């Protein structure tokens, strides 16, 4: 079958393309911005990429068009697709009908930690010899790819996003996946561009719960009140809860920075993890992954041993460079809770060393100013805070940061921001760059500036 994918360079749709190619289809695609690394990965798979959205990209006519959720009516490719009567579906629908059917699907849902937990779970199953398939919203260094078909009817691990599916399907993506094992990591208000309030997101999670069979399993964060409200709406599936203490799955003997802990199942030690990750959020992610893997037949001691070799996920407190005693991190955090969690984890690791936070409030929710009142508190663990206010942000970022006093400053220009941050940094500092986008290449620009500053002078 010849498949053309619209929005192919997004992480999710790029993963769909890789899976379709591995399944034997002839795959092509187009996107408004075709650029590395996704373009490089797809071209290496022999997938033809086209820049922009044009009607002629459908020549010859594909057997099916798979539509990404970034596209809407008025887009030239969408209008041509509809006018010509070409068969089309969404990415989640294609995944469900062509890859997931007949397999044990393990879905990881939640406002935060989906990518990391999905990567952990796939890594555990792989280490146990299960040869799982997976689709992750990021690249796990242990695999080097974001998607893999897996062996035959092996389990399939999918990052289950609550964002809407397509312009013609406004339900959450995860409603297509029909998991047998579902992790509910946490639930907060986000995606203000499509959800009017928290209750509307809770409803989507309840619909997800409705799809899990009676012989399946819900793995749920015991400490999350919003998830508790979801479960109160009704459930038909056994539930195991995880927490640092007092859960079906819990821990003991945790190092202060979360770099080591013993896993408890029903208060009995079943495994030990010693790894390079930090933060209690990653300990919680690990518990969820171990519990889900256990439901798929992997013993907790094997899972814990696998996580001790887990290398993390790109853009999750990923060390990008160490220059003249300064460590530069890249992190995907863009919600106040994620920002606070990232900085807390780093603080536990580096103790009294200075942390410099650099933030681009880029998500649609941030652009709308929904989280302005909680932004300063989320950044409180940083010694210095630099925030880039792009032209798309119309609310007063400086006013929101006022509780931080002289620790915080706002820049309206990337070049100016590079100069301000580089002038602030000194040996022993840890600078965390947080954005859910490319940040106009700020990471590389700052690293290049630090390298020039550190270069010996003749």
Oligomeric state of the chains present here = single chain
Q: Given the helix and strand composition, which structural class is it?
A: alpha/beta
- What is the helix tally? 15
The amount of helix comes to 25-40%
Largest sheet: 7 strands, mixed
Strand adjacency order, main sheet: 8-7-9-6-12-13-14
Uncertain regions spanning at least 5 consecutive residues: none
Cα(first) to Cα(last) distance is: 62 Å
Q: In percent terms, what proportion of residues is strand?
A: 15-25%
Radius of gyration: 22 Å
Specify the overall morphology.
globular
Overall average pLDDT: 90
* Number of distinct beta strands: 23
Outline the structure in words.
By secondary structure, the protein is an alpha/beta fold. 33% of the residues lie in helices and 23% in strands. It contains 15 helices and 23 strands. The protein has helices spanning 11-22, 38-44, 76-84, 91-100, 114-127, 198-211, 225-232, 280-295, 300-307, 336-350, 364-367, 372-378, 397-400, 414-424, 442-454; strands spanning 2-6, 26-31, 48-51, 64-67, 88-90, 105-109, 133-135, 147-148, 156-159, 164-166, 169-172, 181-184, 217-221, 239-242, 249-252, 260-265, 268-274, 318-323, 326-331, 355-359, 384-388, 408-411, 430-434. The strands form 5 sheets. Strands 8-7-9-6-12-13-14 form a 7-stranded mixed sheet, with helices on both faces. Helix 7 links the parallel strand 13 (217-221) and strand 14. Helix 5 (114-127) packs across helix 9 (300-307) and helix 6 (198-211) crosses helix 7 (225-232). The radius of gyration is 22 Å and the shape is globular.
């Amino acid at each position: 079958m010849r498949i053309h994918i619209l929005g192919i360079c997004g992480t999710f749709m790029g993963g769909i393309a890789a899976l379709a190619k591995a399944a034997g289809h002839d795959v092509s695609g187009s996107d408004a911005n075709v650029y590395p690394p996704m373009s490089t990965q797809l071209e290496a798979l022999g997938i033809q990429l086209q820049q922009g959205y044009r009607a002629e990209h459908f020549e010859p006519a594909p057997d099916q068009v798979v539509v990404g959720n970034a596209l809407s009516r008025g887009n030239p490719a969408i209008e041509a697709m509809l006018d010509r009567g070409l068969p089309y579906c969404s990415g989640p629908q294609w995944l469900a009908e062509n890859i997931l059917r007949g397999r044990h699907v393990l879905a990881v849902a939640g406002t935060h930690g989906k990518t990391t937990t999905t990567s952990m779970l796939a890594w555990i199953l792989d280490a146990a010899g299960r040869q799982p398939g997976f689709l992750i919203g990021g690249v796990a260094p242990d695999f080097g790819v974001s998607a893999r078909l897996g062996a035959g009817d092996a389990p399939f691990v999918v990052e289950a996003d609550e964002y809407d599916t397509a312009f013609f399907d406004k339900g959450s993506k995860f409603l297509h996946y029909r998991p047998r094992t579902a992790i509910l990591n946490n639930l907060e208000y986000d995606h203000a561009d499509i959800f009017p309030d928290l209750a509307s997101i809770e409803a989507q999670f309840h619909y997800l719960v409705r799809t899990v069979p009676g012989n399946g399993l819900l793995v749920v964060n015991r400490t999350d009140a919003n998830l508790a409200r979801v479960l109160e709406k009704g459930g038909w599936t056994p539930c195991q809860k995880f927490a640092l203490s007092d859960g079906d799955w819990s821990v003991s003997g945790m190092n202060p920075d979360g770099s080591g802990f013993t896993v408890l199942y029903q208060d009995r030690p079943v495994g030990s993890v010693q790894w390079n990750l930090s933060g209690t959020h990653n300990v919680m992610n690990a518990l969820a992954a171990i519990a889900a893997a256990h439901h798929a037949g992997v013993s907790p001691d094997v899972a814990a041993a696998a996580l001790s070799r887990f290398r993390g996920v790109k853009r999750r407190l990923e060390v990008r460079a160490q220059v003249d005693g300064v460590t530069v991190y890249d992190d995907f955090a863009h919600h106040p809770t994620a920002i606070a969690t990232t900085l807390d984890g780093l603080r536990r690791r580096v103790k009294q060393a200075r942390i410099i936070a650099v933030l681009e409030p880029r998500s649609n929710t941030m652009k709308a100013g929904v989280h302005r009142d909680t932004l300063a508190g989320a950044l409180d663990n940083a010694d210095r805070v630099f925030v880039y206010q792009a032209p798309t942000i119309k609310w007063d970022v400086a006013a929101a940061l006022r509780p931080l006093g002289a620790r915080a400053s706002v820049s309206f220009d990337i070049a100016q921001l590079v100069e301000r941050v580089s002038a602030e940094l000194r040996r022993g500092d840890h600078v965390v760059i947080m954005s859910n986008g490319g940040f106009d290449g700020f990471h590389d620009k700052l690293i290049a500036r630090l390298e020039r500053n550190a270069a010996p002078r003749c």
